Amino acid sequence: MSNEEYLKIPMPDDWHLHLRDGEALQVTVPHSASRCRRAIVMPNLKPPIRTVKEAADYKDRILSVPGVPHTFQPLMTLYLTDSTTTEEIARAAESDFVFAVKLYPAGATTNSDDGLTATRNAAAVFEAMEKYDLPLLIHAESTDPAVDVFDREAAFIESDLAWICENYPSLRMVFEHVSSAIGVEFVESQSHRMGATVTPHHLLLNRNDLLVGGLKPHHYCLP
Q1: Pairing relation of β-strands 98-103 and 14-17?
Q2: What are phi and psi of 142, to 5 degrees?
Q3: Helix (H) or strand (E) holding 126
Q4: What is the model's pLDDT at position 223?
Q5: CATH code, domain carrying 196
Q6: Does residue 109 sit in helix, strand or coil?
Q7: Predicted local distance difference test score (pLDDT) of residue 58
Q8: Among 26, 66, 81, 94, which residue has the fewest nearby CB atoms (within 10 Å)?
Q9: What is the model's pLDDT at position 210?
Q10: Radius of gyration in angstroms for the set of CA atoms belonging to the chain, rounded to a whole number
Q11: Residue 3: its pLDDT value, please?
Q12: Are the C-beta atoms of 135 and 99 separated by less than 8 Å?
């Protein structure tokens, strides 16, 4: 195979990593640190990482796990709540270890009960993030029970994400674990200011893999 036919990544970065907390760190941190140089660490713990101080303490817990290579760099994030202040955003931007803020709609996913109850509740926070150039990471999933489970990404784009993009044109964003053609098209429409993460199984599998020939529960994934 010639050099033109493949891409070699000696030490990749993980742009969406759940290390969890407590005893789990003894397993998750060595596994990730042995494979990745840097990682965006998700903040949806119990309780969540809401402040710069909590992020600093969590980073210390991660790096104190025995055997972690000194080269491993956890890039910390804050968990956006209805109570997040613009002052906390300023502190995050001034720090050298908080790299983004994560939006979870309340009730959408694991440990999201403290998430935003309404996206527009964070209007002042979005303005501050735009001012300080602090990126917003977005779990794009509607929690409206009337919305079909396979349409929740598209519904969130229409009801919430489009509003953020319209009102905060300089805010940098990452559309997390994009799982639909509509989601990909929306990211592409936002040009350089929006990126996306994607899981391998969302690239390889669709509803036919889940349902045709009988239900295969291990292929089920949200969002």
Answers
A1: unpaired
A2: -70, 140
A3: helix 123-132
A4: 66
A5: 3.20.20.140
A6: coil
A7: 99
A8: 66
A9: 92
A10: 18
A11: 58
A12: yes
Per-residue pLDDT of the chain (223 residues; tens, 9 = 90+): 555 788 888 899 999 999 999 999 999 999 999 999 999 999 999 999 999 999 999 999 999 999 999 999 999 999 999 999 999 999 999 999 999 999 999 999 999 999 999 999 999 999 999 999 999 999 999 999 999 999 999 999 999 999 999 999 999 999 999 999 999 999 999 989 999 999 988 889 989 999 999 999 999 887 6
Find all residues with CB under 8 Å of 82, minimum gap 6, and list them.
Answer: 116, 117, 118, 121, 122
45 occurs within a structural domain: yes
Which pLDDT score, from 0 to 100, does residue 221 have? 81
d(CA 18, CA 67): 19
Which residue reads 């599998």 in tokens? Answer: 205
Report the domain count for the chain.
1
Contact present, 106 and 116 (Cβ < 8 Å): yes
Token representation of residue 94: 């001034």
With respect to residue 2, please indicate whether it lies within any of the assigned structural domains: no
CA distance 51 to 34: 28
Q: Name the token pair of 82.
A: 């209805």
Cα separation, 63 vs 49, in Å, equals 16
Q: Are 100 and 74 in contact (CB under 8 A)?
A: no
Answer whether the bond into residue 47 is a cis peptide, omega within 30°.
yes
Domain residues for the domain of 211 are 10-219
Residue 205 in any domain: the answer is yes
**Which residues partner with 98 through β-bridges?**
76
What distance in Å separates the CA atoms of residue 61 and residue 4, rounded to the nearest whole number? 42
In a domain, 1, yes or no: no
